[in-house]
Automatic annotation (TrEMBL):
Species of origin: Epilithonimonas hungarica
Ferritin-like diiron domain location: 4-149
Lineage: Bacteria, Pseudomonadati, Bacteroidota, Flavobacteriia, Flavobacteriales
UniProt binding sites for Fe cation: 21, 54, 57, 98, 131
Xref: InterPro entries: Ferritin, Ferritin-like, Ferritin-like_diiron, Ferritin-like_SF, Ferritin_DPS_dom, Ferritin_prok
Name of the protein in its database record: Ferritin
Main subcellular location of this protein, as a coarse class: cytoplasm
Gene3D superfamilies per the UniProt record, alphabetical: 1.20.1260.10
Keyword presence, Oxidoreductase: yes
Family: Belongs to the ferritin family. Prokaryotic subfamily.
Length: 184
């Protein structure tokens, strides 16, 4: 009796996403090391925490595959890319990684829809929401750095930005939570 509730194609796609989340975790860890080496301890701390979030995402995919009677697989991940050239480059790349990951999430939603696999479709909605938050978080990094002066920012404004990111929350609010009293 086949007790795997996932199609072979779906299981493979979910395993691929596990690998992608694991890769993202390593990328942010390596960017964190780069920032740390440059002396930006706060930014490094932010990236380390973000790295853990990506690992958590990987675990969620692993758990889901197993809970559906499937076989989860931990695959090899490619080496992280080259170090960023600057803080602007670093934050732009963080944003781009999130956008690329959103594309993969959408592909999984699309596959679930085509297969009428509503359990996976429902599971994936958490990630659709999560990517709105992650892209917003990355956009905020870009905005904060721009306000600080971008690549021409003074040491003083970078010091302030670094401190702010050390204490920055990992969670951002969703647009659905906004009200007239609290639009931000
Ligand atoms: Fe993720
Ligand atoms: Fe992410």
């Amino acid at each position: 009796m086949n007790t795997n509730r996932l199609s072979t194609e779906m299981q493979n796609a979910l395993i691929k996403q596990m690998t992608k989340e694991n890769h993202a975790s390593q990328i942010f860890l390596s960017y964190g090391c780069w920032a740390d080496t440059k002396g930006y301890g706060g930014i490094a701390n932010f990236l380390y925490r973000h790295s853990q979030e990506e690992r958590n995402h990987m675990i969620k995919f692993m758990r889901y595959i197993l809970d559906r009677g499937g076989e989860a697989k931990v695959e090899a991940i490619p080496a992280p890319p080259e170090n960023p050239q600057s803080l602007t480059d670093c934050f732009n790349k963080v944003f781009q990684h999130e956008v690329d990951n959103t594309t993969s999430i959408y592909d999984l939603v699309d596959l679930a829809f085509r297969e009428k696999d509503w359990a996976t479709w429902n599971f994936m909605q958490w990630f659709v929401k999560e990517q709105i938050e992650e892209e917003k978080l990355a956009l905020e990094l870009i905005d904060k750095l721009k306000i600080a002066g971008g690549d021409r920012a003074t040491d003083e404004s970078l010091f302030t930005l670094d401190k702010a990111l050390e204490a920055a929350a990992d969670e951002v609010s969703l647009p659905q939570e906004a009200t007239a009293d609290n639009p931000s």
